[in-house]
Amino acid sequence: MLTRRHILQSAAASVFFAGFPARGFTQTRELGKIGVIILEGGMDGLAAVPPIGDPALIKRRKDLVPTKAIKLNPFFGLHPSFAAFSQMLANGEAAIVHATSIPYTLRSHFEGQNLMQTGIAKPFAIQTGWLGRAMELAGIPGKSLALDMPLLIRGAADLDNLYPASIPGSEGPTRDLMTALEAAYTGDASEAFAKLAMRTGALEDRRREPAALAMHAGKEMAKPGGPNVSVIRVTDFDTHSQQGADEGRQADRHTIVDQIFLNYKHGLGDAWKNSIILTLTEFGRTVQENGSAGTDHGWGTAALIAGGLLKKASVVANWPGLGDKEMFEGRDLASTLDYRTICAAAIEAAFGLPHDEIAERIFMEPKLPHAYGLLFDA
């Protein structure tokens, strides 16, 4: 029987690009690059970044706490699967934000995934994503590359989509074909084929393995005229049973995310210094493990961030505690920091937009706190 959870977890990893400069497009400043790793299903922040200094952790999660956690400081550890990311932390080019989430507490995948991509407070109320709106506000044209692009990068205008044909017997578009069609036509048609020629190269590598997609994404973003934004989507974080500790289902997901960060860095090359890569997930997991050695839908989680635009390598957290009276509704890690403030800070760092405009016009929350100084001030 095909269940809703199977539908949520069945998709292969995929990569999407956005923000290709149009022909003749110029900017007065060099814009940074933003890569988003969407972790569908709800990443367990307590497994990825265990608060080893909180005495309630082991009491509530005796089977789920990694025994080989990488010690970051006396209070926080990092799951041993994050070997590359831990080295980035040591090198001053990564950071962690804990006890954070979007302001959504009803624990529905469908509503949560919609809100984490739209960036607003009401589900299914808008058809554009916060990163798509950020590109529009920054004046970056050319929003998407695929017909099934994530909501996150959809904008209200200038949607020029391209998706490779999958009809039996057909072939995908090539750069040479698009260039020839550009020369054969004039006016709007020529302009359209010119756009497709520039974008077609990004479709030539269609491997579905996440680390390979990250390498490909980084290389495309580093090219002159390459995209300013990429999104990699990874599924299967919904670990209701047999989650594991040092090894297991969450650990396997952690390894994939670790490889994505590493390959983004390798692919971007020199462009890494002007880039920010961050994770995005709809919610965390329950503090207490369930009867199937797994966890259920929660609220607060942890976010991983890396890139040369970061100025502070640290674990940012206003820790709420895991006691009975400290947990949200007696079961979840409370979120003490709206994750949209971190997304807003990343936009400010990469695109140079003022916080007040980001808060009001992108997240539609004029009083959204300004968190730039937590990560991007030297």
Please, could you describe this protein's structure?
The N terminus is likely disordered. The chain is built from 13 helices and ten strands. α7 packs antiparallel against α8 and α9 packs parallel to α10. The chain is of the alpha/beta class.
Tell me, what's the shape?
globular
Uncertain runs: 1-11, 143-147, 158-171, 202-206
Approximate strand percentage: 5-15%
Topology as a string of helices (H) and strands (E):
HEEHHEEHEHHHHHEHEEEEHHH
Q: What is the total tally of β strands?
A: 10
Helical run tally? 13
Give the class from helix and strand content and strand pairing: alpha/beta
**What would you report as the Rg, rounded to the nearest angstrom?**
21 Å
Instruction: Tell me the major beta sheet.
Output: 8 strands, mixed
Q: How many angstroms separate the termini?
A: 54 Å
The residue-averaged pLDDT reads 86
Protein topology:
Elements: H1 4-9, E1 14-18, E2 33-39, H2 45-48, H3 56-60, E3 70-71, E4 77-78, H4 83-90, E5 94-101, H5 109-118, H6 130-138, H7 175-184, H8 187-200, H9 210-222, E6 229-234, H10 249-268, E7 275-281, E8 301-306, E9 315-316, E10 337-338, H11 339-351, H12 355-362, H13 372-375
In short:
The protein is built from 13 helices and 10 strands.
Core attributes:
single chain; 378 residues; alpha/beta; 8-stranded mixed beta sheet; two-stranded antiparallel ribbon; 13 helices; disordered N terminus
